[in-house]
Amino acid sequence: MDQRRPLIAGNWKMYKTQSEATETAKQLIRYVGAVTDIDMMIAPTFIALTAVFAAIKNSPVALGAQNLYWEDEGAYTGEISAPMLKSAGCQYCIIGHSERRQYFGETDETVNKKIKAAIKAGLQPVFCVGETEKEREAGQTLSILDKQIKKGLEGLVSEQLDPLIIAYEPVWAIGTGKTATDDQAQEVHRFIRSLVKNNFGQALSDSIRILYGGSVKPDNIASLMAMPDIDGALVGGASLSAESFSQIIKFKR
Ligand code: PGA
To answer: What is the DSSP letter of 239?
Structure first.
């Protein structure tokens, strides 16, 4: 569907000090500041959000966070809420990344609360789903995704889901250099779109953007983006350098 505007998002994970993050953001804008045909986002660490926002606010590159807590405020030491992210200039928030599920106890239930909190605050959730290598080998890929998506979006109705973005990130492809083949990714993206259709209707399934993530690089982005149900990418390692991230953004189209 060509009305879906591509989104290329960079997840900087726990990399870069404030000054390094700001420097990379400024460099990135020098490379991609004139790009107008796709949406772009970078997600630095919490502590660099404000400084990076100051550097990108008059550019086409938007700001994202990597996580949030679902209460607006309260005695939750160490946590950061959706309204706080919004006030720091965020437009997007990555939610349910597999590293959070794996190392920080994120579950489908907490993901669900976070997605609701993000939408309520006017943030666009980048809702991450994906199977592990073991699950893929056991033939459970589609059933795992079905469960993650149903539980992650439980209690939400299609009218609320316009801001939602889904990122399919096979866990075995993250940071490993192993990418899903274009066809493997397309098959899952098509399945996710059909799940959205069955649960939330045709209009949302036509308009929702589904990103692919997992070892996206300048040399594999174009063929992934050529797949009909892949609407963008969530990039980790290759987004850390402004040069390689800009090459991904400027993939041949
Ligand atoms: P990667 O990470 O591009 O380094 O594989 C992707 C992600 O974790 O979002």
So the answer is: G
